[in-house]
Amino acid sequence: MKNLPNSERLESDFFSKDVLEVAPALLGKTLIRLFPDGRTAKFIITETEAYRGEEDLACHASKGRTNRTEIMYHNGGYIYIYLIYGMYWMLNIVTGKEGYPQAVLIRGLENLYGPGKITKFLGIDKSFYGENLVTSKRIYICNNSNPVTYNSGCRIGIDYAGDIWKNKPWRFTLEENKKKI
DNA sequence: TGCACGATCTCG
DNA sequence: GAGATCGTGCAT
Hints:
The chain is of the alpha+beta class. It has helices spanning 12-15, 19-25, 115-122, 163-166, and strands at 30-34, 40-52, 79-84, 88-94, 102-109, 112-113, 139-142, 150-153, 171-174. Strands 1, 2, 3, 4, 5, 6, 7, 8 and 9 form a nine-stranded antiparallel sheet that branches.
């Protein structure tokens, strides 16, 4: 952190805002992972998706409060992680206020695109479920003061959610990153 | 207790 | 374009 100029760790007030505000705001921020062997990985976040409330049929919380979705009902700043297709861990960040389930899926990092590839490369698995980004010693996010521009589009892989939710423009991509993907 | 189904990726 | 592979939620 000390050799990352112009940046500081994001606090809980950042994550406690509505997911539709936090998801695009995470673009351009730096995700930092401290590995057990002492190595540090830093990546700019380039693509996110918002999942918002029990009424959002694409959001896992649409099934209600269960063991899996429990963490999404907390106030923002926690990690929600789950297994997809039997082999890939998806990294999500819980946002918003207590009792209103929502989360941001981290889909892309600079030079590391793909939600499954991100967790594989960063060594993130179920043990990170419920991790607090504000206090964790192995993963956190830093602010970058540079302003960013972004585009929005439809979320990926949620055909089952129905037209209304499928067509919400809740996927956000860093504009500068388009040419790199 | 069993079953169908993914917020995906890699290989052919 | 298909297969890998398993936790979860919902139906028995």
